[in-house]
Amino acid sequence: MTGPEGAAAAGPEGAALPDDGASRTPDRLRLRASRLLSQLSTRSDRLVSDGLAQADARKWHYAVLASLQDHGPASQATLSRRTDIYRSDMVGVLNELTGRHLVERAPDPADQRRNIITISARGRAQLRRLDKILDGLHDELLAPLDPAERDQFVQLLIRLLDHHTAGTA
Q1: pLDDT for 2-49, tens place per residue?
Q2: How far apart (Å, rounded) are the C-alpha atoms in residues 83 and 60?
Q3: How buried is residue 62: exposed, middle or buried, by Cβ count under 10 Å (0-12/13-18/19+)?
């Protein structure tokens, strides 16, 4: 964006904005963190969903497998809380993962009314495969950032999310 004299447009506190030559987005929109996060989230979701689909997987599959690998066997309700997947959706996800032999369901010896879910050897192998795919997708998503910026960006996102989700579990 350029001003009337051809100079780069200034953002808050006089910071120069990149001149993309074609942007018609008003600065008051382009400079809103909430809007930028929303747009990036949409693009990130599409990139990850499309990338995982090529491996016949979904984000929810990855979330459940990662939770089981990192925290051990769990009930469906516990997995739902750990992954932020609605309980009603969790049943379908677990049906898919069980059908692919990526997890095993067994009655809880302490409470026969609930199941305990465990990741299988095949599930651990699938998780390693999905980790590699996601590493590549994240490289693509964060391509403009150098490694230090990527780490800083992720830490800032964690800080923001932790702040806004504190006490909501």
Answers
A1: 444 444 455 555 556 666 555 688 888 888 999 999 999 999 999 999
A2: 8
A3: buried
